[in-house]
Design a protein that fits this description.
It contains four helices and nine strands. The chain has 147 residues and is α/β, with parallel strands linked by helices. It has a single domain, classed as Oxidized Rhodanese, domain 1, CATH 3.40.250.10. The strands form three sheets. It has a five-stranded parallel β-sheet. It has a two-stranded antiparallel ribbon with strand order 1-2. Helix 4 links the parallel strand 7 and strand 8. The protein is globular.
Amino acid sequence: MSGTGSTSIPDVPVRDVWERLRADAGAVLIDVRTEAELAYVGHPDLSPIGKRLVTSEWQTYPDQRVDAGFVEKLSRRLGQLGADHSSNLYFICRSGARSLSAARAMHAAGYTKSHNVADGFEGPLDVKRHRGVVAGWKAAGLPWAQG
């Protein structure tokens, strides 16, 4: 569990997230990286389990400020998809830091089943300072796409 104070957000390993998304029709994976990251680095591909990735930037590009309207925008988008405050929401970013902040914000807004995807899409740096090898979605061999 990650978190401080009264808001403790569970860290869920990537393979467990994949299984939970497959088993729970109402579960949603939300990628909070920037559009540039999604285009150039890649993103989880949920098509093998009949789902679509939801994207919502936690920080704006290029200034990297937290989007003050994040909760409102994402709440509206989730509602359009049929998700509600009782839906399991899984937040992912590059390595798990921004997604944890986003999950905390949504939890505070009443989405109490908010989870952080442990190690994110690319995970930590390896000894050669490369990502996507040690841990995370890509390193686990889960489906992903680029562009």
